[in-house]
Amino acid sequence: MRVLFDIGHPAHVHLFRNVILCLEERGHRVLVAATEKEVATDLLKQYAIPFVSLAKPGQTLVAKGIRLVISTLRLASIVVRFAPDIFIAVSPVRSAPLAWLFCRPCVGLDDTEHAKLARHLYMPFVSAILTPAWYQIELGNRHVRYRGFQELAYLHPNLFTPDEEVLRESSLSPGEFFSVVRFVNPTPSHDLGHSGFSHSARIRLVRKLAEHGRVIVSSESALPQELEHYRMLSRASAMHHLLAFAAVYAGDGGTMTTEAALLGTPSVFCGTVGPLVGNFRYLERQYGLVRCFVDDEEAIQCAVNLALDPSAKKEWRRRRNLLLEECINLTHALTRIAGAFVCVSSARRDSFWVRDRRRLLR
């Protein structure tokens, strides 16, 4: 079986790397095509995953549209040479149309309800779209829900163990108090019209947390000059280890908010998209693992309070362990699904829908 993974974000590298290993161990051929976004290609190199580079993402909606066309054409030329049996991607705006054009199945994943434009582009062509069970939109007969999170495909304790040596690489000592902050650039199409921490609130957040210990800032774009010396300088693959040991996480980045919560770290999100995201609503209401705010000041105060609460970390880990009891291993599920769709498409080239969708996720 030949499997093509289309990667458009650094988080997708983490999501798929264990699936790639599983498939290769079973003798399947894998090809990774990646957008040169932020640290995605750096992560692929650090994990020794060979890849073909596509276009860099644009910063405006028009530029993104142009880059999407360019990268799709480049991906098409790769498809002709590699001849994949199946495409797998998160929000597969490039992969799904190409899979349909080449009469191959495409399995997509999505956990971002407010990414309306992307969904309109891929839904007519995708063979199945996998979402968490608490995804707040119904996507029709190709919609497969699973009880879990994309982030558990790489952060489940069976797959990931925090390493204190990474703290030393960042000039931190085991047990030392520190916070992690993440700021995103609201230019992706699914974030247009939404906002997170304001410029001044970013400065206040970091300064407030810095009064109590070290602050490590991850940012997609340039930071205010007074915050630049807080920027994370460690290798990209160190972030999850830092998140696991941090006293608190705060930011307006959706993926890292979920990652921190699933690592048992008190997690504070600030942004207008909070009420729209099923992952956040479920983590907050069902387990209290995330605190979501629209107001900057409320988010800052909550982050500081959690950072200073000596019992918060222990309580978050207890809640996280309860959550893990109900979640599936998405890595194993994706490996099985890939095989199932290839079997179906080999038998009937004109139909890629698997009738018994629930069996795929058992």
How would you characterize this protein structure?
The structure is a single chain. The chain has 362 residues and is an alpha/beta fold. The protein folds into two domains: 2-155 and 328-356, 3-Layer(aba) Sandwich (Rossmann fold); 165-324, Rossmann fold (3-Layer(aba) Sandwich), CATH 3.40.50. It has helices at residues 10-25, 40-46, 61-82, 95-101, 116-122, 152-155, 164-169, 199-210, 239-245, 254-262, 278-287, 296-308, 312-324, 330-347; strands spanning 2-7, 29-34, 52-53, 86-90, 106-109, 128-132, 143-146, 178-183, 214-219, 248-251, 267-270, 290-293. The strands form two sheets. A seven-stranded parallel β-sheet has the order 3-2-1-4-5-6-7, with helices on both faces. A five-stranded parallel β-sheet has the order 9-8-10-11-12, with helices on both faces. Helix 10 (254-262) links the parallel strand 10 (248-251) and strand 11 (267-270). Helix 1 (10-25) runs parallel beside helix 2, helix 1 packs across helix 14 (330-347) and helix 8 (199-210) packs parallel to helix 12 (296-308). The protein is globular, with a radius of gyration of 20 Å. Mean pLDDT is 88; it is low at 347-360.
